[in-house]
Structure formats: structure tokens, C-alpha cells
């Protein structure tokens, strides 16, 4: 599920902003970008993340802003002078004259520029850990808000499937009348009304109606919808369970469609399938 959390803390000579972004993913994909001075604490931060965020694509950024008068990068003047003198002497021997390009080359040589590696002490690390926890709290708050909106949308679609299910009943009565009329017309093509056995006709009609009966499918579909709503209220991770229930809902809808034998029922089945597909897409965002 998408989410964003940010928290900052101020140390003696710098301000650190921690940002955590998450995107939906079936697996845990953690990308932790840390300044060199925090690298030795990377495993502690990873463990905390894994405990709080079970899956998803996670990007964590530590942004360090040094206060005025403090520079994180220092020029190694002694090393640059030595490099320059040696390269200048070599250039004169070779007949080369371009001091600006020579200085640009020197800057790229090893140890010309130094990055300060001031490892935080225990007190600073405690502040950083609290800030990291605050960023995770903000992330969870964001994800919870999105989760509530997601749950509201999914439950509305489940309720809509049940509403569409209720709209099938009038078509069932119409379908019975259509089947009766069709069978009667077919029989009258080969015989006259006085030779028609009404009892046998009713038996055949019942046989066909039983083959097209969807009462059990409707009952199971309604039960699955109710169970889906109950699972949504469970406090644990329910994404996989909801996926299984949605498969059962889809199975009952498909069976109703195969037995429909009526354009009105088929249209409702298509509408229910459409809502179910939207639900399945949303379930990809649920743990």
C-alpha cells in the first residue's frame, strides 16, 4: 500500500530529515539510502522496518543538512598541492600548457576531497532512532487512512454485488414463463392441443427449470459476500484470505451466468463481474 512518513531531528551541528515512502508489492523490497556516518547502524534500521512494514517497495532516505559554518566535505589542500606540482612538472616536460584542466584533473584524484565521518555518539543515535520511529508512525498513519478509504470502497462494491443479486429474481419469473411458452410452441409444431399431455408437459418443464435453477448459487454468493465483510473487520493480515473468498464469489457468479438463459440475468452477471474485478484490483493493496 502506498504511504509516506517524514520526521526531522536537530543535532549539534546538523539537521537530519528522514523520509519513508512505500508502494504496493507482493514482496518486501527495501531500499535504504544512508549517509556514510550511519552505515554501521543499517541493520538496526532494517530490522525495525521489517517488524513494522511486512511487505511492499520501501524507500528510506536520510537527508543531512549541516548548519552554517560546518561543512561535510573538506578539500585536502596538502594533497592537492602535491598532486598539482607533480602533474605540472610532468606537463612542462611534455610541453603541455593548460593549468585549468590540470586543476580539474587533480580534484578527481584520490584523497583530494575528504568527507567527514563523524560517527554519532549514543545520545545522537537515540535521537535518530526516535526520529526514525516517528517517521514510521507517520507512515502507518498515512497507510491506515488510505486503508480505511480502500475498505470503504471494497465494501461498497460487495454491497453492490448483493444489490445486483436481488435484481435477478424478477427475471427468473420471466424466464420461467418464456421457457413454458417456448416448450409449448415446440410441442404444438408436432401435435394438436387435444393430444397434449399436460402432466407430462409439467414434468418436462420442471426438469428444465431444475437444470436452470440458481437458488443454491444465489444463497452461496450471498453467504460469501457476508463472510467477505466479516473478514474485512479482522485485525490481522487478511489480504490472502480475502483473495480466496473473492475467488469463491467469482465462481458462484460464473455459475449463475452459465445457467442464466436470459439476457437480463446475463447483463446483471456482467455487472457483478465488473465489480468483482475492481475488488480484486484493490485487494492487491491489502496485506
Would you identify the regions where 5 or more consecutive residues have pLDDT less than 50?
A: none
The strands making up the biggest β-sheet line up spatially as: 1-2-4-3
* Percent helix range: 55-70%
- Biggest pleated sheet: 4 strands, mixed
Secondary-structure-based class equals alpha+beta
Number of domains: 3
List the secondary-structure elements in sequence, H or E. Answer: EEEHEEHHEHHHHHH
Radius of gyration (Å): 36 Å
Structure characteristics:
single chain; 287 residues; alpha+beta; Ribosomal Protein S5, domain 2; 3 domains; two-stranded antiparallel ribbon; 9 helices; elongated
Characterization of this structure:
- The chain is an alpha+beta fold and 287 residues long.
- It has helices at residues 42-52, 77-94, 99-107, 122-166, 169-188, 198-212, 215-232, 239-259, 263-283, and strands at 3-10, 14-23, 28-33, 56-66, 73-75, 113-115.
- It folds into three domains: 3-67 and 122-141, Ribosomal Protein S5, domain 2 (2-Layer Sandwich); 73-115, no CATH class; 143-283.
- A four-stranded mixed beta sheet has the order 1-2-4-3.
Summarize the structure.
By secondary structure, this protein is of the alpha+beta class. The protein has 9 helices and 6 strands, in the order E-E-E-H-E-E-H-H-E-H-H-H-H-H-H.
Topology:
Blueprint lengths: L2 E8 L3 E10 L4 E6 L8 H11 L3 E11 L6 E3 L1 H18 L4 H9 L5 E3 L6 H45 L2 H20 L9 H15 L2 H18 L6 H21 L3 H21 L4
Parallel strand pairs: 3-4
Antiparallel strand pairs: 1-2, 2-4, 5-6
Helix pairs in contact: 1-4, 2-3, 4-7, 4-9, 5-6, 7-8, 8-9
